[in-house]
């Protein structure tokens, strides 16, 4: 069976690029921790937006959809799920809320992982969640012509309970040493979890929930305000490519963790940068929504699209953005470039 021992493997990951990522994240964390503690009420809307984006994106990666209106109602728990997809979305919402509110009291143990998986499927019936796979599974990929091939053979079903126990034990043992940066250790754990693939369904969503849980427990709570799942969904091709590269020779204990660790650290850096940008407009400028849009365009070098504005201001509706753009063009403060889906806007420096 595959052995899990993080005590030495992490040292090979201290490449210049990874060390640079670690330094950036540590600096972001130091700058923002006190701010988050003192401005919790101001950041409430970021939390709510991130919950919606996280629930949508993590399920969307697995092909689970509903309408935007239904999604928002489900996340806010103002409606009951009607379809299988909505039941799975509601389950993700509840596990995400549990992690947000109780992460300090949820250790990464096999029994806890089973409980979280049970709750992920709480609307599907008692026999769906909270149980390891009983039949061997495979990870497939499909090319552009529809041909499927085996990308990876996970741990056999009969070995799975012991493998998860050993994985969790080794992770906690490595954390206890206090020599390994949790930011390196967490992606290593997640890669191994995905290679075990302990459940018949829900492995991807569980891996993203566990990522948040472990980051929160290590003090990196940016995922509460900026959706890490959305950042992964936006770069899912790179996500899957890094998983593939890091899983080669995994069963032989000879895999290279670097591609996946580097990818995940890049996502965390992007989340902190996004958080800094949003906080600036939410708390330090005291601007109205149209004024925020105007200021973002004014301070952007080159051009910006409507979709980029919506991404940077998720609390502002598309109608408000469109109306503000029209007003800024009427006053000749911005110029519209192109048309249709390729439309861009730029500030007129007079």
TrEMBL record:
InterPro entries: Fido, Fido-like_dom_sf, Fido_containing, WH-like_DNA-bd_sf. PROSITE patterns: FIDO (PS51459). ATP binds at residues 201-208, 239-240, 253. The active site is at residue 197. Signal peptide: none annotated. Residues 108-266 form the Fido domain. Keywords: ATP-binding, Nucleotide-binding. GO terms for molecular function: ATP binding. This is Fido domain-containing protein. The lineage of its organism: Bacteria, Bacillati, Bacillota, Clostridia, Lachnospirales.
């Amino acid at each position: 069976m595959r052995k899990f021992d993080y005590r030495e493997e992490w040292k090979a990951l201290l490449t210049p690029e990874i060390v640079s990522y670690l330094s950036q994240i540590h600096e972001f964390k130091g700058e923002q921790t006190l701010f988050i503690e003192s401005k919790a009420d101001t950041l409430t809307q970021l939390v709510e937006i991130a919950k919606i984006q996280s629930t949508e994106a993590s399920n969307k990666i697995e092909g689970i959809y509903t309408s935007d209106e239904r999604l928002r109602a489900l996340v806010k728990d103002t409606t009951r799920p009607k379809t299988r997809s909505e039941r799975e979305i509601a389950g993700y919402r509840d596990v995400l809320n549990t992690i947000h509110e109780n992460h300090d009291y949820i250790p990464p143990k096999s029994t806890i992982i089973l409980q979280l998986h049970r709750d992920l499927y709480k609307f599907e019936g008692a026999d769906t969640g909270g149980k390891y796979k009983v039949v061997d599974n495979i990870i497939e990929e499909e090319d552009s012509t529809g041909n499927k091939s085996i990308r990876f053979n996970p741990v056999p079903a009969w070995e799975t309970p012991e493998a998860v126990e050993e994985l969790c034990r080794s992770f906690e043992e490595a954390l206890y040493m206090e020599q390994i940066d949790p930011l390196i250790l967490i992606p290593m754990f997640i890669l191994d979890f995905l290679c075990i693939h302990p459940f018949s369904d829900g492995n991807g969503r569980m891996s993203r929930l566990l990522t948040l849980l472990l980051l929160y427990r290590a003090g990196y709570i940016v995922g509460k305000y900026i959706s890490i799942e959305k950042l992964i969904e936006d770069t899912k091709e790179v996500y899957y490519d890094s998983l593939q590269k890091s899983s080669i020779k995994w069963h032989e204990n000879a895999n290279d963790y670097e591609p996946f660790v580097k990818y995940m650290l890049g996502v965390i850096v992007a989340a902190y940068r996004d958080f800094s940008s949003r906080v600036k407009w939410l708390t330090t400028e005291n601007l109205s929504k149209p004024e925020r849009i105007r200021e973002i365009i004014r301070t952007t070098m080159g051009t910006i699209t409507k979709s980029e504005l919506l991404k940077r201001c998720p609390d502002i509706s598309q109608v408000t953005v469109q109306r503000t753009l029209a007003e800024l063009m009427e006053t000749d403060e911005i110029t519209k470039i192109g048309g249709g889906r390729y439309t861009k806007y730029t500030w007129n420096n007079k």
